[in-house]
Write a structure and sequence with these properties.
The complex is a heterodimer of chains A (126) and B (234). With 126 residues, chain A is an all-alpha fold. Chain A has helices at residues 11-44, 51-58, 62-90, 95-122. The radius of gyration of chain A is 19 Å and the shape is elongated. The termini of chain A are far apart. In chain B, the strands form 2 sheets. A 5-stranded mixed sheet of chain B has the order 2-1-5-3-4. In chain B, a hairpin with a 5-residue loop joins β1 (2-7) and β2. The chains are: A mainly alpha (126), B alpha+beta (234). The interface between A and B is medium-sized, with 20 and 24 residues.
């Protein structure tokens, strides 16, 4: 028996909870992905950094394409949700304007991110 | 010793008083001296004087503190004291603030114990080493002084945010095996004005005179809300 009435959450409240959860889960993905990315960068630049070296390592690789695909999705979800919270707390922007801006921001991040991922996948690698 | 004390309401000002410096003297002693000897109209709140009741919290040299157990020697390094009402709460007069919003939020956060047993039922048997009991124990010594609430940046930015004390209280009940609040309480404390609004800046535990960690309690609530959301209970 529950003594506190349980009316269920309004749609807006449920959406806020889910956005928060998506940001938390994407943060977990990013925590791993950023470490892999930085470790790779540190290892890769030992012999000097060149475009040819990067293409030979990443170009045409399905594994790297999938890894950076997941990375881009995580960034595309994590950054706009976090920035949305900051804008809502720190600026007088209306909730609608904030949401619109952040959807556009997500589209830009995902667009640029996947453009790079697909471009590298399309290149002949080593 | 020169002591500046806030006089008036929101639009008040600091008034400076000269108070004798004693070897063993709390900030509350100073305020009481001013009220009894220098400014009888000074309004302030206190009760137990021994750190139990949570009545006497004020802003001392810029930080929220319990004044009855704050020694002048600890906070007046420069030889001056500035005593103001608690932040994030409406000033009634001088050093007295309106605590209603603070305690209303305890209610909004489902802060009341909800049980389904009667006096005819047996005692709940809970081992002291039980993990949930230890979680609850870590938070139950709160005296409701409002220091954490006054020190919380999120409360300052978002006046509807429930705040550390109310959420800490909810966490003790979430971990109480006898409580029947369940997912309904999680609904009350989730959301951007609930535990999800906390940025883990830890001002609450930095200032808490009882050395509790509302930040840890709120992190626990976030985990509970995450699990409940994933399981479709929220």
């Amino acid at each position: 028996m529950s003594s506190i009435s349980n009316p269920g959450l309004a749609y807006a409240e449920r959406t806020e909870n889910r956005l928060w959860l998506v940001q938390r889960m994407s943060a977990i993905v990013l925590a791993v992905a950023v470490c892999v990315h930085l470790a790779t960068v540190i290892v890769a630049v030992q012999g000097g950094l060149s475009a040819a070296e990067i293409v030979s390592r990443v170009g045409g690789s399905l594994g790297w394409a999938l890894f950076y695909g997941v990375f881009v999705v995580a960034v595309g979800l994590h950054a706009p949700i976090g920035l949305r919270t900051i804008l809502r707390e720190m600026t007088p922007l209306s909730p609608g304007a904030t949401n619109g801006l952040m959807v556009a921001f997500a589209v830009v991040l995902l667009g640029f991110g996947f453009r790079v991922v697909f471009a590298f996948y399309g290149m002949a690698g080593g | 010793m020169k002591v500046s004390i806030w006089r008036g309401g929101k639009a008040g000002r600091f008034v400076t008083y000269e108070v004798p410096r004693l070897e063993n003297q709390t900030v509350l002693d100073v305020v009481t001296y001013v009220q009894r000897k220098l400014a009888p109209s000074l309004s302030y709140r206190f009760s137990c004087r021994v750190g139990m009741c949570g009545s006497c919290a004020m802003t001392v040299n810029g930080k929220p503190r319990w004044t009855c157990r704050t020694h002048v020697s600890k906070v007046a390094g420069g030889g001056t004291l500035e005593i103001a009402p608690l932040g994030n709460l409406a000033v009634i007069k001088d050093l007295s603030v309106d605590m209603r919003v603070f305690f209303d939020k305890w209610s909004k956060a489902g802060g009341a114990f909800k049980g389904d047993k009667t006096r005819d039922d047996d005692f709940a048997r809970i081992k002291p080493a039980d993990k949930r009991r230890r979680n609850a124990n870590a938070g139950i010594e709160c005296i409701g002084c409002g220091v954490c609430y006054a020190g919380c940046d999120v409360v300052r930015w978002k006046p509807d945010y429930l705040g550390p004390a109310a959420l800490n209280r909810a966490w003790t009940l979430v971990n109480d095996a006898r409580d029947t609040g369940g997912p309904a309480r999680l609904q009350l404390i989730a959301g951007e004005n609930g535990c999800l609004g906390c940025h883990s800046q830890q001002s609450c535990q930095e200032h808490c005179p009882k050395h509790l960690s509302p930040t840890a309690s709120i992190a626990g609530l976030k985990r509970a809300v995450s699990v409940a959301t994933l399981k479709g209970r929220l």
